[in-house]
Amino acid sequence: MGKKYVILGGGGAFGLVTADYLLKNTDCESVTNIGRNYPKSACFTLNVGNGDKRYSYHAYHITYEIDLLMEFLDTFRPDIIINYAAQGESAASWKNAWRFFETNAVALSKLVELLMQRDYLERFIQISTSELYGSAHTEPFVETSPLVPSSPYAASKAAFDMYLLSVHSALKFPMHIIRPSNAYCPGQLLHRVIPRAILCGLTKQKLPLEGGGMAEKSYIHARDLAHAIFLVSEKAKLGTTYNVGPDKAIAIKDLVQKIATLMDISMDALCSIVPDRLGQDTRYWLDSSAIKRDLGWQQTITLEAGLQEMIEWCKKYQTELMHYPQVYQLRA
Asked: pLDDT tens, 274-311?
């Protein structure tokens, strides 16, 4: 019999892609996504799980409805919990920073304390962030690199990672931490640079390129991340932390240039230069050799192929997507 998975933060694109991966590539018994909202339209859900009796979606708010969430988990008794749930925008976290700690550290530590009182959970997999390392200057970060968060968001994510490490060490809580590079996929919210740049190109708007796009980041397709999560759930030693990302980082301006080239648009037509965001790190760059060595993970989707998939998604749903905000909106 396969495993029963619960994905928290499952209303977002990455949780949905992970559910889709598990349903299509494993012998799972069931996959349940849990998000704070009721299901969105098909342009964001991409019809994941439709017609599959192993799949379900439920709406519970991890911060304000943890009692209802625990009632559900106690009934469902999942083997594996994958946690994407977070307030997730570093630039916005300078205002109302407490909101980020409320979800990313306090609510999740409360959840873990409750889970430690149960006997059904085999593994809790936390999806963390590369941002908690700060800027990589001369070499990529390894899992033991110091945590130097440069925003309240990154600090809140670091706080929960450190909590998980402590409760595993002292209390044997069965956890893992995955620190991915910047993930992307169809269904992603539109304030992120890849979908926003594509929509700007389709509608002849100007993309505000912060700081001229000099900051470097590394991008991983959410399906490659989902594969890493599955390998961790099946094969990793309890308590492990793994970086997951491509070998090289890319400047934002070069990323946008790739999009412009694929769409046959000039950079001048697509972008306008605006001031850099507060606390911008210069380079997010990960060494993922540990997960490759231990679990056999490899990146399979090239950035060019992933960007083309994003362009096709934006074209398909362009009319509907234009009704959604292209800037981050903080919610409880």
From this structure: 987 777 778 989 999 999 999 999 999 999 999 999 99
DSSP 34-76: EESS----HHHHTTTTTT-TTEEEEE--TTT-HHHHHHHHHHH
Distance CA 55, CA 66 (A): 22
Tokens of 115: 């889970």
Residue 216 Ramachandran class (φ > 0 left, ψ -120 to 50 alpha, else beta): beta
From 202, 185, 193, select the one nearest 318 (Cα to Cα): 202
The string of pLDDT tens digits covering residues 77-130 is 999 999 999 998 888 999 999 999 999 999 999 999 999 999 999 999 999 999
Cβ neighbour number for residue 169 with a 10 Å cutoff: 10
List phi, psi (to 5°) of 69. -60, -45
Structure tokens at 239: 């308590």
Fill in the DSSP letter of residue 178.
E
pTM: 0.95
Question: 208 has which bridge partners?
Answer: 272
